[in-house]
Each structure stands twice: as C-alpha cells, then as structure tokens.
Specification:
single chain, 373 residues, mainly alpha
C-alpha cells in the first residue's frame, strides 16, 4: 500500500484546483489590471485636451489587446519566479549538508562530522532549544544516510523526498518501476482533466499544443528517471545559468521537473488567454451609451460649424460699415428693434397680451377689469 501512487493522485488534484482557480482568478485579475494599465497609458502618452480612443473603436481594441498580452506575459514571468522561489525555500539534502551535487562519500562524511560538532544536541545547554536541535540533527543524519546510499541517492535525485515513504523499494529497479507508475497515473489523469476542462469550455484555445507540451514533458521526465546520469539540459543549460545568479543553488532533476510541471500548467492558462487575442482584430460593437455619446459629439461639431459660418456671414454683411462707428450703432439699434418686434409677433401669448392692453386703452376699461370679467 505504501507504493500506491498517492503522490501522483495528489498532483492531479493540484492540477485541477490550480487550473480552475488560476483560470477564474486570472480572468478577474487580467480585466482589472488591463483596464488600469490602459487608463494609465492614455493618461501618460496622450496630452491633456487631446481626444482619447473611445471604447469600441478599432484603435481602442488594438491598444487593449497589446496591453492584455503584456499583462499575461508579466503574469507568466512572475509565476516562474514564484515556482523557483518555492523550490529554493524548500531546499534539498545537498543544500542542507552544504555540499555540491557531485560530492563523494568522503566529502559527505567530512561535512557531516563538522556539522555534528556544531549542531549536536549534547552541545545545547538550554532545554527549550534541545528538542529543536535534536530534530535538526536527525534531519542532518537522514540527509547523510540517503546520500551515502547509492540506491537511495539515485532515487532521491530523480524522484525527490517522497521516496522515503516507499518502504518496499530497496533496489534501483524498484524505485524506477514505482516512479514510472506514478508518472503514468499523473499524466493520464492530467490529460483527462485537461480534456474535461476543454469540453466544459474553461480552456478552449491551443488544444493541440497543450497535449503536445504534456507529452513532451512526460517523455523528458521518463528519460530523467531512467538515465544513469543527470539530464544534459540540467548539467549543460540550467545549472550553468543558475551559477551566475548570486546565492541561487543548483537544481536536482526532481526540482527541475517540479518547476517544469508548474510552468506547463501556467502555459496552458496563458494559451487560453493569449489565443483569442491573436485572431483578426474586430472592433467591439458600441453600447447604447457610446452611440448616444457619438451622436452628441457629431451634433456638437455640426453646431460649431454652423456657428462659425453664421459669424463669417455676419462679418461679411457688416464689412461696409466697419469704419463708420455711427452707422454701426444705428445698424445694431435697428437689428435689436427688428429682433424684438419679430419675437413679439411670433409669440402668441405676447400678441394676445398686447391686444388686450390696446383694447383696454381704447375702451377706457380700468386695469384688471378684463381679467375680472
């Protein structure tokens, strides 16, 4: 029962939870950050008073797509950093002993003796710290025992600390067969989960590339498990690059595979988000508010044009009187009288009131008598 692939089943459960939570959570995060970034972009690059692209226009949609892709790539890079940070914090038996990955048995024993002189529980006088020192010393002894055993060291390098619970595995073929069974359960279950999520509509884009990346990672993981030496990508690419990063430890095969698994899951989410953004650009249909706003803008522009034309015509009509101040005053007076008279004649209420006033004056009727009748 101890060799049943429980770790693989837990990894599948992690895949389901991670995919669903990351998809839904990232959708909300993506909408909020993209909208804020687009507003900030317009505030910085468009001068005050200049028109900004309106929602629904082709330029607005194009800007939003580009900003959205930048946000997704930034999220992908952060996810890689977070996975790397978690691996560095978890450490490995080599780091705990303070030895390099290619250390031999003599180097392991020498380093363990030095650590024993520093951290042996008998050297701790405080009883409250003795239990902590004992637990730490037991862990150091476990690290020494695993790395001194060639079989366990081979299995640990490729499968990680979960091999400590495989009590029935005593030889390298035992560890390899158990590891292969766990890989089969993990990848078959993950493929089934991805198929189900795609069928339900949660992850639609890049279905071929999802399964291609999953199959490629599975083959690489199988190679890393059965190879007598570390994979070449780890010894020739990854670890030499990590050596240039200050205080960054080198990775073991199981750590590299753990990082690649999280990276693949993140890429699945990135595919589902970036895929729709790579299609043909289509402007979103404007809403009712946007249509009303556009109509008001066109009406305002038309009114401004009409006002400019009327001012120009008025200036042309007044050109003969431009140098005659008295003629200009008389023209303004007559125009004012004309406007007043025209307004009085066009208003029915004004005409009725004037008619009643004139009728009272002609008949000598006192003020207010007409209204009293």
């Amino acid at each position: 029962m101890d060799q049943y692939p429980l770790a693989a089943i837990e990894s599948i459960n992690y895949t389901i939870v991670y995919s669903l939570c990351s998809t839904f959570g990232f959708d909300l995060f993506n909408i909020l950050v993209t909208g804020w970034a687009q507003s900030a972009f317009y505030a910085i690059w468009i001068r005050a008073g200049d028109p900004k692209p309106q929602p629904g226009t082709r330029q607005f949609v194009q800007h939003r797509r580009r900003i959205n892709i930048i946000v997704i790539v930034a999220y992908l890079l952060y996810t890689i950093y977070e996975a790397d940070f978690q691996l560095r914090m978890a450490g490995n038996f080599y780091q705990d002993l303070g030895v390099n990955l290619g250390v031999e048995e003599r180097g392991i024993n020498s380093r363990f003796r030095r650590l024993t002189l520093l951290h042996h529980p008998d050297k701790v006088s405080n009883d409250s710290n003795r239990s902590i020192a004992e637990a730490y010393y037991v862990h150091l002894k476990l690290c020494r025992d695993v790395l001194m055993d060639p079989t366990k060291r081979f299995a640990y390098d490729r499968l990680g600390p979960e091999i400590l619970s495989w009590q029935r595995s005593t030889t390298i073929p035992d560890y390899i067969s158990t590891g292969i069974r766990n890989l089969f359960v993990y990848y078959a279950g993950t493929a089934g989960v991805l198929t189900l999520l795609g069928f339900l509509g949660y992850i639609k884009q890049a279905a071929f590339w999802r399964f291609f990346a999953l199959a490629t990672l599975g083959i690489f993981e199988l190679h890393a498990l059965t190879s007598p030496t570390f994979p070449g990508i780890l010894t020739k690419v990854v670890n030499p690059v990590l050596a240039f990063i200050p205080l960054h430890p080198q990775f073991l095969p199981f750590q590299l595979l753990s990082l690649l698994r999280k990276l693949i899951l993140t890429l699945f989410i990135a595919f589902s988000q970036i895929g729709p953004l790579l299609g043909p650009l289509e402007a979103a249909p404007p809403t009712d508010d946007q249509v009303s706003q556009q109509q008001l803008q066109r009406l305002g522009a038309l009114a401004g044009a009409l006002e400019g034309e009327s001012n120009m015509l008025m200036a042309l009509e007044m050109t003969p009187f431009a140098n005659d101040e008295s003629a200009m005053r008389e023209m303004r007076s007559r125009m004012k009288k004309f406007l007043v008279d025209n307004t009085i004649r066009s208003k029915v209420e004004v005409r009725n009131a004037m008619g009643e006033a004139i009728a009272r004056r002609r008949q000598g009727v006192p003020h207010g008598a007409v209204g009293a009748r």
